[in-house]
């Protein structure tokens, strides 16, 4: 169920069509079967079922639907299991409405989105492996490479964040992870290692 503020904000986004605000999983599924839904803002805690049960059903009806999960879940295993279902964004309920709006805009622009506190949970997970340096070029994520290219263009974290519709903190988190993967300690070392390993074009 959307808050009044989010609903007003959605109406202000360009090219947003009809907004369906439903109260439970049964209503959501009925709405999905009778309408073409481009985007779903899904709460995992619904009055009649777990929201995660709806994800494969939504995908089966319309594989092109973009799904944004909003949840208070903090169990890292459960978060990973939800992510494996092919969602497009995961936002913590602990974030404000503005963070949810960023996720919506990001997904609308064809990008995935994870809120800052969820990223921190993933990065602090003991089973989140950092790949050996010799294989780093194979294991930088698409978003990391994208941010790396902007860093090489001497853009600040704030400029990158504004461009990608994410927070500055998220950019810094990606940057820190890349440094760990490439075993460097500063931005200059990061760029040098990126060129040495041909992660960036000369």
What does this structure look like?
The chain is of the alpha/beta class. It has 2 domains: 4-123, Rossmann fold (3-Layer(aba) Sandwich); 133-196, Arc Repressor Mutant, subunit A, CATH 1.10.10.10. 50% of the residues lie in helices and 8% in strands. It has 11 helices and 4 strands; from the N terminus they run H-H-E-H-E-H-E-H-E-H-H-H-H-H-H. The chain has helices at residues 4-11, 25-34, 54-61, 76-83, 97-108, 116-123, 136-139, 142-152, 157-164, 168-182, 187-196; strands at 39-43, 66-71, 89-92, 113-114. It has a 4-stranded parallel beta sheet with strand order 1-2-3-4. Strand 2, helix 4 (76-83) and strand 3 form a beta-alpha-beta unit. Helix 1 (4-11) runs parallel beside helix 5 (97-108) and helix 2 packs parallel to helix 3. The longest helix has 15 residues, at 168-182. The radius of gyration is 19 Å and the shape is elongated. The termini are far apart. Mean pLDDT is 81; it is low at 126-138.
What's a concise summary of this model?
The protein is of the alpha/beta class and 202 residues long.
What pattern of helices and strands is seen along the backbone? HHEHEHEHEHHHHHH
Per CATH, the architecture of the largest domain is: 3-Layer(aba) Sandwich
The structure class reads: alpha/beta
- Largest beta sheet: what is the strand line-up? 1-2-3-4
Which key phrases capture this entry?
single chain; 202 residues; alpha/beta; Rossmann fold; Arc Repressor Mutant, subunit A; 2 domains; 4-stranded parallel beta sheet
Fold blueprint:
Elements (H helix, E strand, L loop, with lengths): L3 H8 L13 H10 L4 E5 L10 H8 L4 E6 L4 H8 L5 E4 L4 H12 L4 E2 L1 H8 L12 H4 L2 H11 L4 H8 L3 H15 L4 H10 L6
Parallel strand pairs: 1-2, 2-3, 3-4
Helix pairs in contact: 1-5, 2-3, 6-10, 8-10, 9-10, 10-11
